[in-house]
Design goal:
Blueprint: E1 4-15, E2 18-29, E3 33-37, H1 44-51, E4 59-64, E5 67-68, H2 74-79, E6 82-85, H3 97-102, H4 117-123, H5 125-129, H6 140-152, E7 158-162, H7 170-185, E8 189-193, H8 197-203, E9 206-211, E10 214-220, H9 221-226, H10 228-235
Parallel strand pairs: 3-8, 3-9, 6-7, 7-8
Antiparallel strand pairs: 1-2, 1-4, 4-5, 9-10
Length: about 240
């Protein structure tokens, strides 16, 4: 049994007086791919923001690699080995593709075979062809590839992808799914948010569905695949 990498227990989070999360529980083991599912506005991104320290928890605990992080500054959380591919990508528009990557190179997990800029270019040949292009000269799909590459060159213990394929053309979306499958096969631990349930069932080990800031269901890919009523009830599929 792989050890627990991230454990969230009883997480409550609010924006000012408006509470969004009501007792979220979530566990991710080393080497797993886990999803966070739910309709828009149910609390998925807020959960991610709480993990990263961007919207601090008001109650509950977040434990990463055996240490509590719910009161830790976001920059320290990132340096501890959690990399976020945020919704909207948020790459630097005035830096080249290579500069966007070089600025984040680190080995936070102490990997013996770390991700490098050249290794990212082998994963995404399209980026290698555009190494001198500015961030704002890239298509949406290329920006998403760059955002994933930027996360990988930090060599994190955990990669979080918020809306992994949102707004991408079908062919580019397939490239992202292929990339994520390759990362899974290489043993990368991943938490992914996306709406394409069929593809997530193929990719992930376990799933958590959030409804109005609460955990509505948790289970394996086989269990989710067997109960399409869950899709209609909670995901609008």
């Amino acid at each position: 049994m792989n050890e627990t990498l991230l454990r969230i227990a009883g997480l409550e989070t609010a924006y000012s007086q408006s509470q969004v999360l009501f007792g979220i529980d979530l566990e991710i083991r080393t080497g797993e791919v886990v999803t966070l599912l739910g309709r828009n506005g149910m609390g998925k991104t807020t959960t991610v923001r709480s993990i990263m320290g961007l919207t601090p928890a008001s109650r509950g605990s977040i434990e990463f690699r055996g240490r509590r992080i719910e009161r830790v500054a976001s920059d320290r959380i990132a340096r501890s080995g959690i990399a976020l591919v945020p919704e909207g990508r948020q790459i630097f528009p005035n830096l080249t593709v290579r500069e966007n990557l070089v600025a984040f190179v680190s080995n936070r997990s102490g990997s013996a075979d770390p991700w490098t800029v050249d290794k990212v270019f082998r994963l995404f040949p399209r980026l290698a062809e555009r190494t001198g292009n500015m961030g704002n000269q890239l298509s949406g799909g290329e920006q998403q590839m760059l955002a994933i590459g930027r996360a990988l060159v930090t060599n994190p213990h955990l990669v979080i992808l918020d809306e992994a394929t949102e707004g991408l053309a079908p062919l580019i979306r397939e490239e992202i799914w292929t990339c994520l499958a390759a990362l899974r096969n290489a043993g990368q631990t991943i938490l992914v948010i996306d709406k394409y349930v069929e593809r997530l069932i193929q990719l992930a080990d376990r799933h958590t569905i959030i409804e109005r800031g609460r955990v509505a269901w948790q289970g394996t890919s086989a269990e989710l695949d067997a109960d399409h009523g869950l899709w209609h009830r909670y995901l609008g599929v």
